[in-house]
Amino acid sequence: FFFKQKTAYEILSGLVGSEMCIRDRFNVTFFAYGMTGSGKTHTMLGDIYQTSTGEPGICTLAITSLFSEIRGNQEKIFHVRMSYLEIYNEHTRDLLNGNNEDSSYADLLIVEDPKKGITVQELTEYEINSPEELLELMLKGNQCRTMAPTRVNQFSSRSHAMINI
Question: Collapsing DSSP states into helix, strand and coil, what is residue 46?
């Protein structure tokens, strides 16, 4: 029993649409869980390297929907920020800080701030003005992810990634 990403997104966004996120300041989390090679990355990101011919992932659909809703709301000023981190072998690192050429981890600290809630110290945040800009940063971050082959998937990411928008 499989859904296309667009069908899955339509079901999920019907429960909590992007207009509710903007109007009511809801936080939404999309979480993919499964064994190696089951399609978690493809479900979340889709064919982001083949945007004209590929199927968009849930993240791509959510980003497009979010910016569409923002453009349709002229009454408020919105500031959209993005960060992208990886957790691998119990270490946290920033995928967008520009210093990921080597395999060393900055090992960023995850802390609870009384005003901001749970935050990652020294995590780079970018102000985003379009879905294209956000997708470009996602591609940049993906190039920095830890990759290692397994028996099931020779291109396994071997880490957990979190995109915060």
Answer: strand
